[in-house]
Give the backbone structure.
Amino acid sequence: MEVMGLLCGSRIKIVLQFLLLLIAVKLLCLGVLFFVVDQHGMELPVHRARMELKQGNVWYMFVLIAFVGPLLEEGMFRLPLVFSPFKWSVSCAIVTLYLYSFFSGTRLDSFDFWSARLLLASTAGLCSFGLCYWGKSFLHRYWLRRRNSMVFVLSFLFGLSHLMNYDRLSLTLLSSVVLVFPYFISGLIYSYVRLNHSFYIAVLLHILFNSIGFSLTHLL
């Protein structure tokens, strides 16, 4: 029991330390954001969550942003940082859902065509599992050599994926860079936690950070 207590205490300390780091990075990025907006007279597009909140869907949006979002995003961008056919198949299935949503214009949380979307994601996951299992010895060695590069690539894609939360027609190159950069830095932090501690701690950290961000957004 004493050992379990020490382990739990150390994990809580890790989560709090990185949570404070994420908050500090977010505040710094907001400062840079306001400076760029002021200097260039730029108008940033409105996040879709703010429009949803105006419609009164507070608890629904809270569940999506604070719990569903972190689970899907960590499964997509941090789970495959440690190679295994299963982890890659899960990540590939989630990516397929996101891509279908992006190109079809269907909301990710919509039940429209849910059976077709589920079938497509399952097929992509199974194909990914088969390919990774077939070439797992080569892919495992390659992944170990290229892990640092993949951290940067997946963190960048993590940031890029958040542009889906904005109206694509209102985005410019400068506004896209300004919006993606904070998520890219956050992605690097989540990746470090995932590789040096555990995937579950990264998920918990992401959930807490999004919960705080959502609460502050709702209050403000």
Q: What stands out?
A: The longest helix spans residues 2-40. Residues 1-7 have pLDDT under 50 and may be disordered. Residues 76 and 95 are 6 Å apart (CA to CA). DSSP finds nine helices and no strands in the chain.
